[in-house]
Amino acid sequence: MSQKLPIGIQDFVKIREDGFLYVDKTARIHELLTGSGGTFFLSRPRRFGKSLLCSTMGAIFEGRRELFQAIAGQPALAIDRLEWDWRKRPVIRIDLNPGDYTQGLKELDETINTALKINAKKYGVPFDGETIGGRFTQLLRNVSEKYNERAAVIIDEYDKPLLSTIDEKELHKIMRNALKGFYGVLKSSDQYLTFVFLTGVTKFAQVSIFSELNNITDLTLDSAYYDLCGITQEELERDFESEIDRIVREKNSDKKTYLDELRRFYNGYRFSQDPVTVYNPFGLLNHFHRNGEFDAYWFATGTPTFLIKLIEEQKIDILNLENESVMLADFQRFDVENMEAVPVLYQSGYLTIVDYDDEAKEYYLDYPNEEVRASFSRSLVEYYIHAPEADFHSLSRILPRTLVRGDVDGALNAIKSFLASIPSDIQIKKERYYQTVFHLIFRMLGLTCRSEVRLAAGRIDSLVETKNYVYCFEFKLDKSAGEALAQIDSKDYLLPWQGSGKKLFKVGVNFVYQDRNIGEWQVVESAGI
């Protein structure tokens, strides 16, 4: 029997009452709620389950015990089996995601005022005050005094107004100053608060919750809560067993092979120093809903145009995005006047932690999985190359097929046709430009490609590996393919792959800038036995 999958549903009450699948996070939530209390912040990329987490916490503080018992044949959730007093407390929920903040400060005021009015009406208390900060203060005091209980405040997507205006610096600063006054209420109203929880994508350094509140606990890189959002491998195999078995059966596949492909395509997000990873829930749910079709579901929900511009402005090396490293302080300096592209790429979900050096206190980053690697490379290709969609489609059909068959000439002819569609005025007279184009094309199509591969003898321009073949590319501009091939030989670049059992290809490619395309290439092949 198939389960009801909560595609796009972030309301815990609806999920439980209507019998949708819920991956039980309540044991981890219980640990948080029964700890020392206070103010907490959690940063996660978009579509990672932050809103559902907020909704679940709200139901707990409202004493909705019936939602945590067995429903639709599911066992009681963890928090119902653990110690919790289930006392009903007022819960102030504020979601800043809906507003179109590019319209200006009026939109921010209206969004917050609407949220405050809804909460005041829910608890039957007066709603007044001259500013949004004043109305927020009045609301907290009124509900606390009426119910003789301190309130829980849960704010989802606290940074949406700031992210929406990041390209408009003056408007961004106006939003930031307005939010300072609003969030500053959390500090001055401590006597009315039992619990405060904020979520967002980024941690803006100059917003008052971080610059003024000295009791805020940042859970973003806390190993104890790495899986508070996202789905672990254990949860995947336990809670989606029926979907997995159905797809394996329908596709006549091997279960282990299918799980490995799921892991490669959707897993890999790491939010702690410990080597533990999670899946993005939005991608998984859509994958199962679409009968096991592998597609870029999460990536398609947002266009990283701003991030690509930031990469260009800061001259980030696209060839080595997967070799970036940052310090802990770099994750905590996000602000419009001091914005580093690499930490923002991490917080936004386009890069993730792959290793941590405890002695140096340094985090090493890479793409989390194949969905992001291929899709982000596609966005970079579109931004830097401006080729027609039809040419992308044609290349995506031909290039992978030729390379998995060892057809180097077919692959290079396909790339040559594609390069001919790139406007001549955007091409740059640098060997590195064409190397970058090659790299992005390979990555966009899901091929295993590494560029600037460091060896004792030097650096390989690009290395592409398939199941049966290894391709070593060396590029020249306005020289000759023979010179490129001679460099591969003189540096013995393919020595590490001798004995691999794969067929090895040395490929020298020369670009002619006047033609804005490949001029010639030479190929030498040998068996890596």
Report the strand count. Answer: 13
The main pleated sheet reads as:
5 strands, parallel
Distance between the termini: 50 Å
Q: Give the overall shape.
A: elongated
Structural class: alpha/beta
**Proportion in helices:** 40-55%
β-strand percent reads 15-25%
Radius of gyration: 26 Å
Number of helices: 21
Uncertain segments are none
Mean pLDDT: 89
Strand order of the largest sheet: 2-3-4-1-5
Task: Describe the overall structure.
By secondary structure, this protein is α/β, with parallel strands linked by helices. The protein is built from 21 helices and 13 strands. A hairpin with a 4-residue loop joins strand 7 and strand 8.
